[in-house]
Amino acid sequence: MRSFPKVGLTLIVCLLCTVLSSPITMAQENNQTPTSSDTAPFVWLLKPQMSYTYVRDLSEGLAVANIGGVLLNTGEIKGGKFGYVSKLGREIIPLKYTNAKAFAEGLGAVRNEDNKWGFVDGHGNLVIPCIYDDAESFSDGLAWVKKNGNWGYIDKKGNNVLPFKYAQKKDITSEIVRVTVSADYSQGVYDKVSRTFILNEDTYDDIQYGDGLFEVRKNGKNNFVNMSGQVVIPYSALKDRLIDAPFHNGLAQLREESKEDDYWRLGFIDKGGKTVIPPKYRKVGTYFSEGVIAVSENWDRTTQSGTFRLIDKTGEDVLGKDLGVFSDVSPFINGRAVVTKYDAQTKRYLSGLIDKSGKLIIPVQYNSIDYVKSSYDSSDGSVKYEPYQNGLIFIKKLADKYKNYYVGVTDAGGNVLIKPDKYVGLSEYSDDKVWHILTSENSELIDIHTGQAEVFYYPKYISEGYAFVAKKPEYSSAGDPEHKFFFIDLQGNRVFPTANDEYFTEAFASPEGVTVKQNGMWGILSNPTDIPSDWAKPEVEKAFSLNLIPDEMKSGYISNISRADFSKLVVHLLEVKTGKSFATLLTEKNKKLDSSAFTDTSDPDILAAYSLGIVGGKGDGVFDPDGDITRQEAAVMLARTANILGITSKSNVLSFADNDDVASWAKESIAAVTSIQDKTNQSPVMGSTGNNNFSPKASYTKQQAIITMKRLFNAL
Where is the SLH domain (predicted)? Predict the structure, then answer.
């Protein structure tokens, strides 16, 4: 897989998504309905105001803050004190730890002065004491932690779920891991969800996984075991034959010794142990892909070549003709495969590219061809492949006897756009631009059609479609370099900040936002990849066009909404719907802001929502602005908002299957918001979560809250 150049700053990988962001557009000034394409890619969620050395790893509404540390080339921050700040800029957990990791599943890993790790909750309570040598973040309710030199799992209460006796683990999927025992290096497979072993660790010497089956070895003998731990292909059934590679697309290579010559014969076996293609080939591709594989019956070890044909999963000839004479044929991806031939003169393999008809797209004359990128799918443990943007293909040719290579680029048709005679390293950026590493500090962005290049310093990949770069550094009177960073789009154009005299000095990306440093202060920008779920997108975009989403709310759509953010949404809805400021609304209701109402917030939107009777505190002057709300709490606040707008409900009757789970104080409000309808699509302000359940105690996400505001807006 070709990656973005790691130059100077840490590479940050992103989710592959599209853009939804700022409503500040010319279309809005002209009273036109803005669309996603009209909007700016970055929006301030919190303008720079946090005076820390670093702010990064924004997750679950909290970011890791550091003071006094130093950023290493590895991306790690070393030294200083660590704590957590909210997206609103409040210091939630004091900076008193020597290290801290991003929040996951409601807990953050922190290290104390004794270099021991523990976990804090979102309020800063140390819920799991600092007694561990090392710790990973929580996943599926478990954290992998190290104690007395060995690793094990603990749950969110700190209970030791898996004893401390393991040397390492390897994630097979997001839920299943392979563990290795320190004492004898035996391996097992553990299911984190059921918290049981699929394969006991004292049974096998080695375990490999592929396509839903485990290949397990003990004393040199291998069996194949399914996800339930049952042996489906025992060693005895293979009868002196060997399975060469893990299963892929339901089949695996089967190898047996030939009685005719000293070549092995290769065929294929299915997951039930049945031979579906008898071993008769001297050479086959790595695995079946797109329903086919290349095979050769006359492959010769001396010439390192043979005549290949294409067969399907039944062993039938697909083309009725030869593909050609090659040393090897890789699996087909997107209808294409890399072919290699051994060059006896140079004693090297040369590569070309063919399609499924055997047509050469790129001649067999390059030392390497790279036309797809790979990604790991944690849901099933498989590797996924996809072509580079616009079908770009990277070609390599040997530059010298020291095995340095020049890299070039062709289009999808194999037409050379950049010859492999100049650049030592090229990597993908967009469908018509590639990066070329110049030094450890700078790279140039090259247009593959014109050859024009622009030099940038310390490029950092922020998200799909945007990079964080600087121009040539300026120097202070003391001779220290001053790097002025900004964001560029896929064409290399500066997009944020737009003014040439504005710049940033650092940035860290996470799915929930991009933390940036400007004029010595840290702020938070929206991440262009942070968009609503597919089911929510149409109504969220409509809410966007109605100006119902404040700028600082344009992120974290799938995360739980905080009490503070819900209050902001409600007050903003009232202002947009009535055309009046909250100050005017308070005056009309004969209400005043009480700045002393809460001890933990002075936010005017929260105080306005409180004075209007929409939200309440939690007692003892506490509002808990960063706390989550439940669906029944949201229903009460929405019903009160509807009342202020003069919207009346049609029913006071609840008819959900889980009525008994609803608190008595919420029943009337839930009846109201489930009967009030959006007049544009007849959807209730709030509805069922499935199977006629309201799920009153379930959490409420930001995108759900935005949609209910839009429906309430359209109910009058």
Answer: 589-652, 653-716
Nearest to 351 by CA among 338, 337, 360, 361: 338
Residue keyed to tokens 């991806």: 333
Cα–Cα dist 107/105, whole Å: 6
Residues 64/107, Cβ–Cβ less than 8 Å:
no
Residue 17 has pLDDT above 70, yes or no: no
Give the bridge partners for 310, in sequence order.
294
DSSP 139: B
- Of 182, 459, 202, which Cα lies nearest the Cα of 190? 202
Rounded Cα–Cα distance for residues 664 and 692 (Å): 19
Cα angle 206, 274, 203; round to 5: 20
**β-pairing, 513-518 with 521-525?**
antiparallel
Strands 426-428 and 416-423: unpaired
CA dist 337 and 321 (Å) reads: 17
Sheet of 348-355: strand order equals 328-329, 336-343, 348-355, 360-366
pLDDT at 18 exceeding the cut of 70 = no
Classify residue 668 as exposed, middle or buried by CB count within 10 Å of its CB (0-12, 13-18, 19+): middle
In 3D space, the residue among 242, 246, 244, 268 whose CA is nearest the CA of residue 257 turns out to be 242
Q: How confident is the model at residue 261 (pLDDT cuts 50, 70, 90)?
A: confident
- Rounded CA gap, 639 and 648, in Å? 9
Q: What whole-number distance in Å separates Cα of residue 509 and Cα of residue 493? A: 20
Owner of token pair 């500066």: 494
The pLDDT of residue 8: 33
Cis-peptide, bond into residue 497, ω within 30° of zero: yes
| Alpha carbon distance 87, 513 (integer Å) | 9
Asked whether the beta carbons of 701 and 555 are under 8 A apart, the reply is no
Q: State the DSSP string of 664-693.
A: GGGHHHHHHHTT-B-TTT--BSS--SBTTB
Residue of 605, 585, 581 whose CA lies nearest to 595? 605
What is the C-alpha separation between 449 and 472, in angstroms, rounded? 25
Cβ atoms of 206 and 216 closer than 8 Å: yes
What's the confidence (pLDDT) of residue 630?
Answer: 92
Residue 697 CA to residue 675 CA, distance in Å, equals 20
In this structure, how many other beta carbons lie within 10 angstroms of the beta carbon of residue 363?
A: 11
Token digits for 34? Answer: 């803005």
Classify 7 as helix, strand or coil.
coil
Residue 183 backbone zone (phi > 0: left; psi -120 to 50: alpha; other: beta): alpha
Check residue 634 and give its pLDDT. 94
228 pLDDT more than 60: yes
Tokens of 549: 């989403």
Both tokens assigned to 160: 């030791």
Give CA torsion, residues 497, 500, 503, 507, to 10 deg: 50
Backbone angles phi, psi at 44, to 5 degrees: -70, 120
116-144 residue pLDDT tens: 999 999 889 999 999 999 999 999 999 99
SS3 for 25-57 is CHHHHCCCCCCHHHCCCCCEEEEEEECCCEEEE
- How far is residue 604's CA from residue 100's CA, in Å, rounded to a whole number? 32
The C-alpha atoms of residue 371 and residue 1 are separated, in whole angstroms, by 9
What three-state secondary structure class fits 519?
Answer: coil
Reduced to 3 states (helix: H, G, I; strand: E, B; else coil), residue 149 is coil
How crowded is residue 624: how many other Cβ atoms within 10 Å of its Cβ?
18
pTM here is 0.78
Confidence of residue 40 (pLDDT cuts 50, 70, 90): low
Tokens of 612: 């209007």
